[in-house]
Protein: S-adenosyl-L-methionine-dependent methyltransferase
Organism: Amycolatopsis vastitatis
Amino acid sequence: MRFASRTAEHVALFRALETRRRDRLFADDHAIRFLSARYRWLVRAAAVPPVGQGIARLIDRRYPGGPRTSAVARTRLIDDLLAEARPEQVLLLGAGYDSRAHRVPGMPPTYEVDHPATQRVKRQRIADRPHVHYVPVDLNTESLAVALDGLPARRTAVIWEGVTNYLTAQAVDATFRDLTMIVASGSTIIFTYVDRAALGDDTAWHRVVEKAGEPWTFGLHPADVPGYLAERGLDLKGDLSAKEAAARYHRDEPAADFYRIAWAVVR
């Protein structure tokens, strides 16, 4: 992949639109910085409530399956899980245009791991902060353990949001195994994944990511997740679909039951 992630821009768009809502689940004032000119115009127009509601409905009709609400619900849930973890440091894997290190008050030292192309664009659009450390890595081809050699062995919150479904099974396996060696016992790993049963579905959502050159390549059956993690030194603590996460925050809008957010603790 030579260019910055297109799917990362789409998620930034959803977060920017959410920020303009009066009933927003979170505020991400940095998200708009990662958007093209046409998307920025759309976000500014969404500041007028009727226009914003119309834009949301248009997106949901054009892309059935609920990618917009799934993205914002998972973001809010992960924010809450991060707060509950109370980590000494944070590791963002495949950080994309995630701005938690900039928007969440009191963030501890944060290490952002991502493909060099996406990371390069991100650093051009958002100011560096002393507590944020950038680690360029392609998880499909490079070792996380090697890239993070020397990382302090502290209680860590690992956030792996919107990434596993774009990797190979070997890369996901290697990353989980590396994480259990890198971070301290008791650390929390929060990750998203796609239900494996949905990988072969021919939907608008699938077609959009394939057109962007970022097709889904990996998934897990939810029933297999506890055992899969246990084999890699992790104990599953929770696993919700994006639809369930949306319901938790009283969002009665389309969200996916095949897109999931799970969290586990390192033994």
Q: What stands out?
A: Strands lie at 89-93, 110-114, 132-136, 156-160, 188-194, 234-241, 259-266. DSSP finds eleven helices and seven strands in the chain. The first helix runs from residue 6 to 19. The chain has one domain: 66-266.
